Amino acid sequence: MRTMICVPLAFAAALALAPAIAHAEPARMEIRISGIVPTICRVEFPSAPRSDAGAIDLGTMSEFCNQPNGYRILLRHPAGLDGATLSVGGSQIPLSPTGETVVVDSNAPAIKQNAVAIRFGDEAVELSSLSFRAEAKGATF
Q: Which residue positions does the secretion signal occupy (predicted)?
């Protein structure tokens, strides 16, 4: 007879605990991961430039920079190219008489591609060198 009383009591105790278990807060967990990603800023021209009358088509400029503060792309060219402009994605940028022109000045990271060409005035110009450089703004890792 004792066993019969114990079984209903155990069952009643389990039923009494069931609502408390059903309303229990779900388990919470938080995982934090941090790391340092190296700063990468680059500018590339995958195709060879083509000369045209009064212009040089430099092809597609690929920009990549992951610096949160942004980046600049500079063009180093011969000084004194009066009237010459750089066309970047349809925008016209006059070349600086000093020999270095800011092509892009961004305050955010970016991945972009733009068509680029240099247009000269009426004079025929022979360029000895052109170089593009991407530089990050802010701290680099």
A: 1-24
